[in-house]
Specification:
The complex is a heterodimer of chains A (about 425) and B (about 160). By secondary structure, chain A is an alpha/beta fold. Chain A contains twelve helices and 18 strands. Chain B contains seven helices and seven strands, in the order E-H-H-H-E-H-E-H-E-E-E-E-H-H. The chains are: A alpha/beta (about 425), B alpha/beta (about 160).
Chain lengths: ~425, ~160
């Protein structure tokens, strides 16, 4: 019997051929934890009797969830993580370096063919890199830090085939929001989601990361993108699914038929075509998070906002995915375009998405956001309404003051000028 | 064996509503417990008694990987969570910290019912209605982790994972 991507990647780390439904103990190629999950991870590591890491080269600690520290309590937790990283000699990324998932990929801590675990639910993002990666909690992560392995159940797989070309003004986010709506918030629980088809063959790594990232919003353990056409800055040997692999479901999406997608409060799977949600005025627009804050996302927003000013009464906040993304966007002029349009740039990190600091909405505020979750209270105030969309829709909405199709406000929305 | 009153909620109770992100940056478990379910049911902490059972619909614990969510529930005194289904990271985290989670796909338990949960047999009895449910069977390794009181004790006892 053929194997899915998940079955192949797990088999290569289990020392035997496995199929969906089997339990396996696997060797792990890398782990990471953040200031959100790290303190409990270290506590569990110490309780396990941990004196040293199984392999310091394979462990990363990132400060990204509440950065720079908004109070002394969090500052002290940051210091505890800094001290631990120094004592153990593992990789450490301090305040402002970027969002964990972006840093793991940029700095090659995760590579094609790996199994990688992160104490963050959006760890499936590295499925874009042809790696099997899943989110775990603090205690599971601490155990890997000590032993270099974990146990898991080999997931069943849902195959998503993407065909056709995206219409003007749309991007990978519209595809994944559509799919989250279709598969459901728990539709892929315990499963792997495999993305394939001609549409993704010329997708950038960044666009592939958007797809894999929000597999989490279907409840999936992993989101794996077919590596055909994947262009990286280093050589790699791709792992491909077998033609006769067994899938529990198959869906085909003709992406040329899509409209911009919007998830309405308070569930990421409550997804609608933009032209069916009526007039929705916004108070705040946010481009950020591990889903959509990479260079191409900022460039798409800049293409919408070039030479224009955002609507009065709207706050446009941008937190680039990493310092590298910010520097690249500075170098190519993207930051100037956005800043001149009225955007406020924030620390590269997770704060506004997860409600820990920066951009906390007021009661009754409506937010259009390029992030991944719109649960009640997600951004720090349960009395705010969060809508999720692509960065282009966020930019277009900041411009008009209401949720807007990018093509309506662009001089030339035919193609994205991704540099 | 647990016998206690229930607090019942619906589908898709996410980790942000179990414990909001703004409260998670701490190692103080009593702070977590103080804010548990705050945005979902501000009266929960007043009403609940130590040992009560939390009951939910589908996909309980969806969202974040924050282990603070099961820790907050356990520290607040919740003895067991029964749900029609669970989100995967929450489920694994709960077991890893020794909070019993029981999946009963077809339960009809309502607010205030008195239930008895036999964890080792995987049986839930609703004494308020007389109904008896069989829980989804967990893999052996999860049962062992739960019986050890969590993953830390499990690894101290077994030294390694045993499937």
């Amino acid at each position: 019997m053929g194997q899915t991507l998940a079955e192949k990647l797990i088999s290569s780390h289990a020392g035997r051929t496995v199929h969906a439904g089997e339990l396996a103990i696997v060797s792990v190629d890398g782990v990471m934890t953040t200031d959100a999950t790290g303190p409990f991870t270290l506590q569990a590591f110490h309780e396990l009797g941990g004196k040293s890491l199984w392999d310091a080269e394979k462990v990363s600690i990132i400060l990204d969830h509440a950065t720079p520290a908004p109070n002394e309590r969090i500052s002290n937790l940051h210091q505890m993580l800094r001290d631990f990283a120094q004592d153990m000699g593992c990789h450490f990324y301090d305040v402002g370096e970027g969002i964990c998932h972006q840093l793991m990929v940029e700095n090659e801590h995760v590579k094609p063919g790996d199994i990688f675990l992160g104490a963050d639910s959006h760890t499936p993002t590295y499925g874009a890199l042809n790696a099997f990666s899943a989110g775990v909690g603090s205690t599971d992560l601490a155990a890997v830090m000590l032993t270099g392995k974990t146990w898991l159940k080999v997931p069943e797989t849902i195959q998503i085939e993407l065909v056709g070309e995206l219409p003007a003004g749309l991007s990978a986010k519209d595809i994944i929001l559509h799919l989250v709506g279709k598969v459901g918030i728990a539709g892929a629980t315990y499963m792997s989601v495999e993305f394939t088809g001609e549409t993704i063959h010329d997708f950038t790594l960044a666009s592939r990361m958007v797809l894999a990232n929000m597999a989490a919003e279907m409840g999936a353990k992993a989101g794996l993108v077919d590596p055909t056409g994947l262009d990286l800055w280093y050589d790699f040997t791709p792992t491909l699914a077998d033609c006769d692999a067994n899938y529990v479901q198959k869906h085909t999406v003709h992406v040329s038929e899509l409209k911009p997608q919007v998830a309405i409060p308070h569930l990421p799977s409550d997804v609608h075509d933009i032209d069916t949600i009526g007039e929705v005025k916004v108070n705040q627009a946010f481009i950020g998070s591990c889903t959509n804050a990479r260079l191409e996302d900022l460039q798409m927003a800049a293409q919408v906002l070039r030479g224009k000013k955002i609507a009065s009464g709207v706050r446009l906040l941008i937190a680039p995915a990493s310092r590298k993304v910010f520097n690249d966007a500075l170098a190519d002029g993207t930051v100037s375009i956005l800043s001149e349009a009225g955007a406020t740039f924030m620390t590269s990190g997770c704060g506004p998405c997860v409600g820990t600091l920066g951009g906390i909405p007021a009661d009754g505020d409506v937010i259009i956001s390029s992030t991944n979750r719109n649960f009640r209270g997600r951004m720090g105030n349960p009395n705010a309404l969060i809508y999720l969309s692509s960065p282009a829709v966020v930019a277009a909405s900041a411009l008009t003051g209401e949720i807007t199709h990018p093509a309506e406000v662009m001089d030339s929305a035919k193609t994205w000028e991704i540099r | 064996m647990v016998r206690a009153k229930t607090h019942v909620y619906g589908d898709n109770i996410d980790t942000d509503r179990i414990i909001a992100g703004k409260y998670t940056k701490t190692l103080d478990m009593s702070t977590l417990a103080a804010h548990v379910l705050e945005d979902l049911d501000p009266k929960f902490r007043e009403r609940m008694q130590i040992g009560d059972v939390l009951v939910a619909g589908h996909n309980f614990g969806t969202g974040s990987s924050r282990e603070q969510a099961p820790i907050a529930l356990k520290t607040a005194g919740v003895s067991v969570v029964i749900a029609r289904s669970f989100a995967r990271i929450f489920y694994r985290n709960a077991i890893n910290i020794g909070l019993p989670v029981v999946e009963v796909a077809n339960h009809q338990i309502e607010q205030g019912h008195e239930v008895e949960v036999d964890l080792s047999a995987g049986i839930v009895i609703n004494h308020s209605t007389g109904e008896k449910y069989t829980a989804t069977v967990m893999p052996r390794v999860m049962i062992d982790i739960l019986q050890a009181g969590g993953l830390i004790n499990y690894l101290k006892i077994h030294n390694d994972y045993q499937l």
